[in-house]
Predict the structure.
Amino acid sequence: MSLSKTQSAYERASKVLPFGVTSNFRFWGEGKTPIAARGEGAYLYDLDGNRYIDYRLAFGPVILGHAYEAVNRRVSEAIGDGTLFAMTHMWEIRAAERIQRMCPGVDRVRFANSGTEATMHAIRLARTYTGREKVLKFEGHYHGMHDYLLFSTAGIKVEAAGPPDAPVPAPQTPGIPRVISDLVLTAPWNDFEYLEKVVTRHGEELAAIIFEPIMGNAASIGPLPGWLEHIRALCDRYGIVMIMDEVKTGFRVAPGGAQELFGVQADLVTYAKALGNGFPIAALGGKQEIMDHIGPGRMLQGGTYTGNAVGTAAADAVLELLEDGEVLRSINARGERLSGGLSEILTRHGIAHHINGPGSMFGLVLTEGDPPRNIREWLQTDQALYTRIAMELIKRGAMPDPDGREPWFLCYALSDQDVDDTLTAFEEAVKAATG
Ligand SMILES: Cc1ncc(COP(=O)(O)O)c(C=O)c1O
């Protein structure tokens, strides 16, 4: 596999972009950072023309496939009439109506441009609605780049995050004012007792509990039975706004997202990623009683580009295809076949492992122990072996993220043949990584 064009383009990139990238998460190391040329369906091509079956899908958004014709056509139709008006337009209304129809308990919707913006507005709305300031988040959960929640995410430094039975919010980056950490409480995911204890103590100060229903930034670790119901009950008991961050799960695990999959309804929900199949679009939605606090003379929400015709036309096309559930059922079924096949190969090679999450975004964890229930337990798993296998697989033309925290994402364009080819390459990759 030649990488000469990629390497010289990377040198050029690093002279103008810090580390040659526009997101720290895209830096794989000097001489190892890939440069994309194009995507088509389930495939990604690098600058040297190498083809990969893409299981990163841009960290999840590409639910149908790269350059998906029906979505591109709808966007082209929209942009012929202009993209931005500082006025409500019909694409926006159509996309919002579809979200309202598909997502349980979403009475009203406002659009944003990224998941970061959507969770930032959700937090402000919860504070407006409750008149309280503190927010509880879970260790290992990621909600975007704004300062309010960038603590103890999947890149958690355990030394800075306190003991597991008395966690403290550890900032993930320099530059966050120290006072903001006074407004954040952290808790381990799936720990019923600790959550009950912390909410009993701080419930009256908490505006919101925010969480990823499936840990889309930590190997798709799911909720234990009864866990989401436990969060719901505590929110109800103390008048706390329950915010389900469906930026990764929304329009991927089921047409109505994790709310539909698990049958638990939040007060506010955030969406992005699969909503646009790669076009930039996000949304915040929820109960009318809460959403009605947004408005003139009330809480501010908006932005020059919010609800632009490009993103909302893309969402209109994507949701039209996802609404009846057939597309997602097919993606999930293919994902189950792929993860089952990976599991069989690992078992044959004597590598202890667990598969987490639904087929459309499953996590693969290598460990002799029990399945991890939270990020601290995931940190005990064999990350190095996972990365070695993933890198060998990439050399053989199938590309999951080399970081085992990132799930394997599947798109509708992926064929049964692609799954078979991935399994063949995976067997070779396991041999190379362990031989
Ligand atoms: C669960 C979750 N919330 C929020 C975000 C932030 O979204 P964005 O990168 O669009 O700002 C992400 C991004 O990966 C995410 O996974």
